[in-house]
Amino acid sequence: MRIGNGYDIHRLGANRMLVLGGVQFPGEPGLIGHSDADPVMHALADAVLGAAALGDIGEHFPDTDPAWKGADSAGILAEALRLAAVERGLRPVNVDVNVIAERPRLAERKAAIRARLAAVTGLPADCVSVKARTAEGLGPVGRREAIEVHAVVLMDTL
How many domains does the chain have? Predict the structure, then answer.
């Protein structure tokens, strides 16, 4: 068994849809990034790559690669999972995601994020945890300049 830890932060301010964990949040300011800028998918993909000792998302999905321009970040997570399976013979056992944001409030959408992550990872929903908290007004997240995500994944052999 292996554990991976992932992290991502994106600045708010893009004139596009906010996407968190593959779920859209209409009416909220979007995040700036090369793909759809989904920090939940990015942090989880980074955790998967870390557990497999395969580097990080910047190495596999650079922001200079036009193939990932505007891409659905579920594809990034799916590719990280594929690499972990093919290169290391690993599959996810459970995931735990922590979203830090002042807005939007995630309480009403956590189940949808959990379901989307379960679908992409192939895990049952009871093996996917999505938590939300604020930054209590501190730092760039607290000033509503960014959204931050921490993710942990437990991987085991196929």
Answer: 1
Q: Which three-class secondary structure state does DSSP give residue 113?
A: helix
Report which residue type is found at 148. E
Going from the C-alpha of 92 to that of each of 3, 49, 97, the distances in angstroms are: 10, 11, 14
What CATH number has the domain bearing residue 150? 3.30.1330.50
Q: State which amino acid sits at residue 137.
A: G
Q: What is the pLDDT of residues 89-145, one digit of tens each?
A: 999 999 999 999 999 999 999 999 999 999 999 999 999 999 999 999 999 999 999
Q: Locate 150 and state its tokens.
A: 């921490």
Q: How far apart are CA 75 and CA 119, in angstroms?
A: 12
Confidence of residue 14 (pLDDT cuts 50, 70, 90): confident
Q: Which of 93, 72, 86 is nearest to 152 (CA)?
A: 93
Over residues 53-78, the mean pLDDT reads 94
Domain range for 151? 2-157
Nearest Cα neighbor of 97 from 23, 21, 37, 35 is 21
Please determine, for residue 18, whether its predicted confidence score (pLDDT) is greater than 90: yes
Residue 71: Cβ-neighbour burial (10 angstroms; 0-12, 13-18, 19+): middle
